[in-house]
Write a structure and sequence with these properties.
Helix content is 47%, strand content 16%. The strands form two sheets. The chain has a five-stranded mixed sheet with strand order 5-4-8-6-7, covered by helices on one side. It has a three-stranded antiparallel sheet with strand order 1-3-2, with no helix packed on it. By secondary structure, the chain is an alpha+beta fold. It has two domains: 111 residues, Methane Monooxygenase Hydroxylase, Chain G, domain 1; 78 residues, Phosphatidylinositol 3-kinase Catalytic Subunit, Chain A, domain 1 (Ubiquitin-like (UB roll), Roll). β2 and β3 form a beta hairpin. α7 runs antiparallel to α8.
Length: 244
């Protein structure tokens, strides 16, 4: 049987080992957040702002309704609480500024940025951002081209105008678009309209499917009129080429 003093010493050692300090909590939380690079960067920026300007109220009050707060990574709330933030009626408030705790939080977040989990996620987010930027540029360029084609399209005649041709464009996705043309409008006018539509390209061609067999309307038909193409009084064309 252990002596009373030994038992007390053992109990004290176990108690000391079980005590978690704020620094321990901060380090543990930072490691949990490491796989989410965006969360690490956001928290680091926030803590640095508070540390640099502790008397600025907007840096010490955060709404929990903020979308960023609703999507916090695992461990983020633990780190904020460990650095002194308190939940209060829908907000996180830093009522007691503890410079040492904030600096510990900043150091811990900086440290995990060298961990493989953070580096992998950072590279992923950078690739996704680059891809999104490239896609946005391509879409903006395509929109400008469509707008240019739209400016070349003759004004649409009124529904009750005499001699109006109604053309149905069958899009590549299965949808249809109807548009009225004058009988003397040309294939070039029709193609300008088609190329102004989303999902088409500057090289999009169509085929006349009003009658069988279908006929691809190519560059050699550009000056032919809607009536001359047998699209009057009504006709159907189908997208056959959307090459970039």
């Amino acid at each position: 049987m252990p002596s009373t003093d030994s038992a007390r010493s053992l109990a004290a050692a176990i108690q000391r080992a079980s005590v978690t300090t704020p620094t321990d909590r901060i380090q543990r939380a930072a490691k949990r957040i490491a796989p989410n690079a965006e969360a690490i960067d956001t928290l680091l920026a926030s803590l640095q702002k508070v540390a640099a300007s502790p008397h600025v109220e907007k840096y010490r009050k955060v709404s929990l309704a903020n979308p960023v707060m609703r999507e916090l990574a695992p461990g983020a709330m633990e780190l904020l609480h460990a650095t002194g933030w308190e939940s209060h009626f829908g907000y996180l408030l830093l009522n007691c500024f503890d410079k040492a705790l904030l600096e510990t939080g900043v150091s811990a977040l900086r440290a995990v940025r060298s961990q493989p989990a953070y580096i992998r996620d950072k590279e992923r987010t950078q690739r996704e951002a680059a891809a999104a930027h490239s896609t946005a540029k391509e879409e903006a360029s395509a929109a400008r081209l469509r707008s240019e084609f739209a400016r070349r399209v003759p004004e649409e005649p009124a529904e009750d105008s005499a001699g109006v041709a109604k053309v149905c464009i069958h899009m590549a996705d299965g949808s249809t678009v109807w548009r009225r043309f004058e009988t003397w409008d040309t294939l070039n006018d029709l193609l300008n309209f088609v190329r102004s539509l989303p999902g088409t390209s500057p090289n999009t061609l169509v085929e006349n499917i009003t009658m069988k067999p279908a006929q691809v309307l190519s560059e050699k038909h550009l000056r032919q009129t809607i009536q001359g193409l047998d699209l009057w009084p009504a006709g159907h064309v189908r997208i056959v080429s959307c090459a970039a």
